[in-house]
Amino acid sequence: MQQKTKLFLQALKYSIPHLGKCIQKQHLNHCNFADHYYNRIKLKKYHLTKCLQNKPKISELARNIPSRSFSCKDLLPIKQGNEKSFSENMDAFEKVRAKLETQPQEEYEIINAEVKHGGFVYYQEGCCLVRSKDEEDSDNYEVLFNLEELKLEQPFIDCIRVAPDEKYVAAKIRTEDSEASTLIVVKLSDQPVMEASFPNVSSFEWVKDEEEEDVLFYTFQRNLRCHDVYRATFGDNKRNERFYTEKDPSYFVFLYLTKDSRFLTINIMNKTTSEVWLIDGLSPWDPPVLIQKRIHGVLYYVEHRDDELYILTNVGEPTEFKLMRTAADTPAIMNWDLFFTMKRNTKVVDLDMFKDHCVLFLKHSNLLYVNVIGLADDSVRSLKLPPWACGFIMDTNSDPKNCPFQLCSPIRPPKYYTYKFAEGKLFEETGHEDPITKTSRVLRLEAKSKDGKLVPMTVFHKTDSEDLQKKPLLVHVYGAYGMDLKMNFRPERRVLVDDGWILAYCHVRGGGELGLQWHADGRLTKKLNGLADLEACIKTLHGQGFSQPSLTTLTAFSAGGVLAGALCNSNPELLRAMTLEAPFLDVLNTMMDTTLPLTLEELEEWGNPSSDEKHKNYIKRYCPYQNIKPQHYPSIHITAYENDERVPLKGIVSYTEKLKEAVMEHAKETGEGYQTPNIILDIQPGGNHVIEDSHKKITAQIKFLYEELGLDSTSVFEDLKKYLKF
Question: Where is the Peptidase S9 prolyl oligopeptidase catalytic domain (predicted)?
Fold first, then answer.
């Protein structure tokens, strides 16, 4: 009965919800960025589990600003020349896929969405919302609501909140094929009954008023925009009223309940600016109190402890996050006192507040740290974490004595750690040691970009690999929204390393790995820095003996498609093949179309080409669609999703067709004997954005990479089968 949370402060990117689908105990093969909401992953004897969320952390605020990615409708795959059949290995791949999809429950144990409250645990069992007494056999549960009553296709619970006195429980229900959601409120009694339902709810929290009445606050999302906050009560005094409306279309509204439940915060933010209002958790009918009016470029997030507000903000110099505090009754910015300053090149991943301690989860110079601050004496204990670790998985733990969390990497499943405040020590989970620690290496390298900036890279390869120059290389890139590259555990990545591949994660500017300035140096009219960084990373890898261009592949998803697509235009000779998933490829035309729901919210990242000629001309310099030309391109496999609501159809279609024409024109100019690259557009049915769990998608992408590089795929199939018993 655990929960997982996504990493913190990914600079205001809206992480599209696609949590583990716990309907009918589906079998998962990874812990994903799961994207959405505060989930935690549990491991039992290396049986990977995936959970839905419980209570959000302050970090959740930064993940809920909508961001753009792209898809298109069902088109036939487009191939150019070189019609080499995939039939030789298709049977083997299909066997692997079938094996993945039919694993027995004991191989991949699923733990449903859950939250502990009082003496009960609330979670999803099959297609039902249920509860059972804490510490009891999980098979002995009470059914509260049958999700099938909503008549949705394979519904799953995205989020659960229990009212303070346990008279009601609220659950947000979604399906994989849509971002639409339904919030249900169930009255808890001898015969539980659904009291109300609300469509298109984004965030929601309970508080209790002076008369012990439960009050539900929730935000309503329309056309991917979340601007309205509602307040509702139930029972004899039923009401539902709009509480707040944000009038600036570039801002997004999200609710967060402080860890001690003392205040409900209304967070109004865009990519670079935020504003927070406090609702008294004991007097929710009183007018909210403004902490600080929005100031362009100033971000801040709020926690509470002992009548003090702890404020994580970038105000002042340097413009990186720092921790400040003030009395709760004097919240304005002039009263904020500096409490803790981060080192340079530090990313704040998350913050957790305890009775006597504040714990900061940090990434400094691409390595992970935990800083434990004693609130009584302002002492600071900094703990450097194992160098193999690439990401945190947080626990919304209520135990004031311990701070548990997990560490993971792309090739290593999560491992438990607990910091015990009384001992002042970090304890590591004991038990079976993952063999990957001995069979693989993780390297932290740097590449010098065109302007001299050092760009960090994380590289994985087998320990016993010989002549790395002859090994295939898979490069990962993102570089947008201040988000880190996703480095959560992925079994297919582990299989590739076991099969001799080199994996390289390039932490280019525009991402958030080195803090807010790292993002600022790769957005708007500095976006080309990210492209220069990517080129430098790949050339550095080759120069240091990691693979060669003919064995180098690149992968990117969503907004990472901008830099990947730009590299294919500017330096296609560096790559042999590329896979893209829901990629953003037509920046200029998309950002000039203000009728699209997210264009206004994206101006801080890409610029405003409609009104700013400088922005327009700059985007033209790197936009993948705008710079396609007749030349040799690497083979490209694009995965798109039929129901991806965040993606304009015409962008990816136009890109694919224009690329096809350029490839054909170059083939004619080159003459006979030229082997044209494969350009494949793979449309996956359903899905609202990127579906990490799709075995069909994973199979297609791996098959594509092996075929394009002319590699023997026998061992990778065996590794996949072996991994299923991991």
Answer: 489-703
In degrees, to the nearest 5, what angle opens at C-alpha 79 toward C-alphas 589 and 709? 105
> What does the pLDDT average to over 600-621?
94
Which two structure tokens, joined as six digits, stand for 649? 């159809």
Element (H, E) at 697: helix 695-709
The pLDDT of residue 99: 40
Q: Tell me the H-state helices in 372-443.
A: 436-439
Return the SS3 of 172. Answer: strand
Q: Are 99 and 721 in contact (CB under 8 A)?
A: yes
Q: Which of 426, 454, 427, 438 is nearest to 521 (CA)?
A: 454
DSSP state of 701: H
Query: Does 42 score more than 60 pLDDT?
Result: no
CA distances from 238 to 55, 75, 206, 232, 282 (A): 26, 49, 15, 7, 19
List active site positions: 558, 644, 689
Q: Are 161 and 627 in contact (CB under 8 A)?
A: no
CB atoms < 10 A from the CB of 683, how many? 18
Closest by CA to 231, choosing from 257, 204, 212, is 204
Distance CA 25, CA 28 (A): 9
Q: How far apart are CA 365 and CA 514, in angstroms?
A: 6
- Measure the CA–CA gap between 332 and 275, rounded to whole angstroms: 11
Tokens 């936009």 belong to: 623
- Give me the pLDDT at residue 721, please: 55
Place of tokens 């997982």: 4
Please enumerate in sequence order all residues whose Cβ is within 8 A of that of 661, keeping only pairs 6 or more positions apart, or say none.
none
pLDDT at position 720: 57
222-226: Cβ within 8 A, 24+ apart: 223/597, 224/66, 224/179, 224/597, 224/598, 224/645, 224/646, 225/66, 225/249, 225/252, 225/597, 225/598, 225/601, 226/64, 226/66, 226/202, 226/252, 226/253, 226/254
3-state secondary structure of 492: helix
Question: 49: which 2 tokens?
Answer: 């589990």
**Whole-number pLDDT of residue 153:** 82
349 phi and psi angles, rounded to 5 deg: -85, -45
**What does each C-alpha distance from 442 to 311, 318, 484, 540 come to in angstroms?**
35, 32, 18, 17
If you ran DSSP here, which 8-state letter would residue 40 be given?
B
- Give CA–CA dist 276/246, Å, rounded: 12
Cα–Cα distance measured from residue 552 to residue 575, given in angstroms and rounded to the nearest whole number? 5
- Pick from 180, 215, 179, 185: which is nearest to 199 by CA? 180
Tell me what pLDDT residue 697 has: 81
